[in-house]
Fold this sequence. Notes:
The complex is a heterodimer of chains A (180) and B (282). Chain A has helices at residues 15-148, 154-179. In chain A, helix 1 runs antiparallel to helix 2. Chain A is rod-shaped and about 205 Å long. The longest helix of chain A has 134 residues, at 15-148. Chain A has two helices and no strands. With 180 residues, chain A is an all-alpha fold. Chain B is mainly α and 282 residues long. Chain B has one domain (3-279). Chain B has helices at residues 3-10, 50-70, 79-100, 108-123, 139-160, 163-171, 181-225, 232-279. In chain B, helix 7 (181-225) packs antiparallel against helix 8. Chain B starts with a helix and ends with a helix. At the A-B interface, helix 1 of A face helix 2, helix 3, helix 4 and helix 5 of B. Chain B: This is ATP synthase subunit a. Chain B: It is found in: Cell membrane; Membrane. Chain B: It is a multi-pass membrane protein. Chain B: It holds the Pfam family ATP-synt_A.
Amino acid sequence: MLGLAAEENVLRIHIDELVFGLIAFVLIFVLVYKYAVPRITKMLDERADSIEGGIERAKQAEAGAEELRQQYREKLEEAHRSYAAELQKAGEQRAAILAEAREEAQVEARRIIEAAHAQIEADRQHALHQLRTEIGTLSTDLATRIVGETLADNAAQGRVIDRFLAELEQDQSTQQAEVR
Amino acid sequence: MSADTLNLAAEGGGGLFTPGGPGFEAPSVGIFFPSPWVDYDIPMTSGITKYAVLLAVASGLALLFLWWTSRKQSLVPNRSQSIGEIFFLFIREQISRPMMGVKGDKYLPLLISLFIFVFAMNIMGIIPFLQLPVTSNLSYPVGIALVVYVTFIVVGIRSQGGVGKYLKGAVVPSGAPGWILPLLVPIEIISNFLIRPATHAIRVFATMFAGHLLLATFAAAGWYMFNPAAGPLFGTISVLFSGASLLAFVVFTAFELVIMFLQAFVFTLLAALYIGQAQEAH
């Protein structure tokens, strides 16, 4: 065992040891205060920042993706809407074209019918006119013949009348053929 | 008697069952008074003793630990950095924040220094071959207790806005009726400004002192009882006794480690408590 110092009061305080202790403590304190704690706090703060920043970035990315999705959805809906509109428009156009064509056809048909009517009317008028002229001529002919031939005998008279009537019939049939 | 036994007996070992051998001498407080290697013969000084050397070792270890754990800093912590951060957060979350709240964070460097310094000095008691807690010499706890004492008084004066206000807040309990003040004020003065720093220093000193004495006793007893040369029966008994004592020594060494940590913790906790009280408005 080491040799013992003379003084043996366990509650002694030695000035030199106290000063050594303070010097040692000051050294440790300076290292902690100037070096260790600032570095550790800085790194802890940085880490907290970076973790929070990471969360923030993830949130932003999520928001961006959601926005993009919304945009796509809107575009899709718009496409659906415009498709439906186009379809409707096409249907309307088709109906319009059909209606127009039908109207045109009706007009044309009416026009043709009217033209036919007019033609028939004109032909009829023409035929009537011709008939009237013919009848006049024939009447004049007949009268001339009746007057020109003496009414000597009944037979002759009878023949004249028959011939006239025959001619008349003949004329009428040709006239009718002309009208047709 | 063989020559070996004689040698053992001469060194205080193997005394048990040795007829005419030395009686058991329990370690005295003398073990806390190592003789100086350098003595400068000034009153109130001890000279350079084992304590001063162990103080240097303890401080060196503390400085090395602090440097090692804060040397490399990266966002993804490496091993040494993690240890430093755990230590830092331990002091902050277990001592500083519960005692002083967030506004006490500026005293973290002081608290960290106190803890690591006290713990390093304590741990000298169980490091093989050194085996003497520096804090078992009252001079060292008194030094740092004084630092805390001065700190909390300065903090108190600053945060209360003047010496008078601080002293009034510290020694006049609020809400006490006037007639009892002549009794209370002296008690408060003695309690806050005399007993508080004294107990702060003596608590860690006394624990380390007693713990070391206990370990020394177990070691000495184990050595004293170790006497296999005392014949078949007595030799066996002596070895068993010695073994039990040495086992106790080992167990109590582990126990001491816990106490060393706890005392450093308590010392730092009280420092935080005192500073926190001074900081608060009364």
